[in-house]
Amino acid sequence: MRENWVVAPEFKELNKQLRQAVAQFDQTGELIVAGDRNTIRKVEINGSWYSIKRFKIPNAFQSLVYRFLRKSKAQRSYLYGMKLLAADLGTPTPVAYLEQFGLGLKQSFYISRHLDYDLDFRVLIHKPLYPDRKKILRQFTKFTYDLHQQGIQFLDHSPGNTLIVKVGEDYHFYLIDLNRMRFGTMNLENRMRNFRRLWLSKAMIKVMAPVYAELYGESTDHIHELMLRYSGQFQKKITAKKVRRRRRRS
């Protein structure tokens, strides 16, 4: 079986320990996520903690696509993480990735520094009275604007994919699940559409729209209308899908 094992330059001295942790994935560290698609474990190496993500084994067709036509999710996670850091935007530090190939891609892993965080964006949705909620939303809007200004369109910009750390009186934001991004200049419609997966309430949009409007140089009313429109369309679409699934099961 052919392997592609890449370690970031600053972690080269841990090459052997990192590779061993991947080889012993099922027996090492602490299980954090055991999903249908991906599994994540937290491991300690030389006094520091790392997160290792094992991606679901692709089907036969996908494995050939990842072998010959498209970068694997592990490789994209690593490369896109490096792009975020180069743009001074938050993500857990990329450390390494591994691809294992037969005829096609068999398994792949992505390693990053483990991040201890205070909350993720979902908390702001489910807890309207969360302390500093408005302040966090305003600072998050600035973070998303900075993403857009750097030409980074995070396609999975959803509630579970932003981790939040309080630093002093401010909040820092870290993106995870990085394998789906586009790069290039974004017009206003694309920027506003990029907020749609965050499942924003009308109250949240009311807080966020003026911040983006001031940064972008657009009227608050226009930004508010676009955010509301794209968020509403997405939420209706997802709700309709759930209703159809329930009907099929009944």
TrEMBL record:
One of its GO terms (molecular function) is kinase activity. Keywords: Kinase, Transferase. The keyword Transferase applies. This is Lipopolysaccharide kinase. Pfam families: Kdo. It comes from the Bacteria. InterPro entries: Kinase-like_dom_sf.
